[in-house]
């Protein structure tokens, strides 16, 4: 078409003055470029997803005994195969699941179980606030969905990645890979524990708790890279020991809340000092 117009007298000059009247370039070329860009974006998303799975993989072995023990406990307190598996699939909250199952076995009321579970998971507020600040580019729907999969392990993996590459936007697919991998591993370990509890002897006496404690130490000690984090960890550790005799694990709840409060205060003080220092430098 452009060649035909060029042969018409005055067409070339009119095209230069009014380019909008010229026919658009071939559609297949544009669609090919769009398909190529979409293909690259898809490959990038896939790479980020599997990178998250890969980085979370070392935690599978340490988390497996934890899930196994929960399966044994769930069957022991009478939740049954379906009830125990539903706990891991719907609650997906590690220590809170242990507390809820233990309270269920002791005949605690529904509101007590919900309250203790919510308080034990209060630390996830800190995780969510940190990720919301550093991953503000994630879409709203994505943050709502992945909030369900936020755990100690997935946060630790994601935070390490963010700390290792400051200033580089973290793909949502990376967190999705790490979180879904932990979700599958946790539920598989729970299923194995439930089946062992239903068909075999009680093996919870064989020291699996050592693996659990070791896993949490390996996860969180590398994250203690600032004064607020150290203060929060030290406060929670100290109070969890001093208040260990409180009923219904309320001492642990109090230790968690105190650690969160101390961490917030220390971080706020640090930011205030930083702003004051910058203000003094500007005056000079």
What does this structure look like?
The protein has 284 residues and is mostly helical. It has 2 domains: 197 residues, no CATH class; 50 residues. It has 14 helices and no strands. Helices cover 77% and strands 0% of the residues. The N terminus is likely disordered. The N and C termini lie far apart (68 Å).
Please sum up the structure shown.
This protein has 284 residues and is an all-alpha fold. Helices cover 77% and strands 0% of the residues. Helix 4 crosses helix 12, helix 8 packs parallel to helix 10 and helix 10 packs antiparallel against helix 11.
Q: Helical element count?
A: 14
Amount of helix: over 70%
Structural class: mainly alpha
Cα-to-Cα separation, first versus last residue: 68 Å
- Ranges where pLDDT stays below 50 over 5 or more residues in a row are 1-8, 17-24
Largest sheet: none
Q: Give the domain tally.
A: 2
> Approximately what portion of the residues adopt beta-strand conformation?
under 5%
Q: Tell how many strands the DSSP assignment holds.
A: 0
- Topology as a string of helices (H) and strands (E): HHHHHHHHHHHHHH
Rg from C-alpha positions? 27 Å
Gross morphology: globular
Integer average pLDDT? 78
């Amino acid at each position: 078409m452009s060649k035909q117009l060029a042969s018409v007298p005055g067409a070339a000059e009119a095209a230069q003055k009014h380019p909008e009247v010229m026919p658009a370039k071939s559609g297949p070329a544009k669609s090919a470029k769009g398909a190529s860009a979409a293909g690259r974006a898809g490959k990038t998303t896939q790479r980020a997803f599997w990178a998250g799975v890969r980085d979370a993989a070392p935690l599978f072995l340490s988390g497996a005994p934890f899930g196994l023990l929960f399966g044994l406990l769930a069957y022991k307190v009478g939740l049954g195969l379906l009830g125990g598996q539903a706990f891991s699939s719907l609650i997906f909250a590690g220590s809170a699941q242990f507390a809820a199952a233990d309270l269920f076995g002791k005949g605690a009321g529904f509101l007590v179980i919900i309250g203790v579970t919510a308080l034990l998971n209060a630390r996830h507020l800190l995780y969510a606030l940190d990720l919301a600040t550093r991953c503000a580019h994630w879409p709203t729907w994505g943050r709502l969905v992945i909030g369900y999969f936020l755990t100690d392990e997935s946060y630790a993996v994601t935070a390490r990645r963010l700390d290792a590459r400051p200033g580089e936007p973290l793909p949502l697919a990376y967190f999705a890979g790490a979180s879904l991998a932990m979700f599958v591993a946790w539920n598989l370990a729970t299923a194995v524990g439930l089946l062992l509890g239903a068909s075999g002897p009680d093996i919870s006496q064989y020291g699996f708790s050592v693996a659990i404690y070791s896993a949490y130490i390996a996860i969180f000690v590398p994250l203690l890279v600032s004064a607020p984090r150290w203060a929060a960890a030290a406060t929670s550790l100290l109070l969890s020991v001093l208040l260990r005799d409180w009923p219904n694990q309320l001492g642990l709840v109090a230790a968690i809340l105190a650690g969160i409060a101390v961490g917030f205060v220390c971080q706020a003080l640090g930011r205030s000092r930083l702003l004051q220092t910058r203000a003094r430098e500007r005056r000079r």
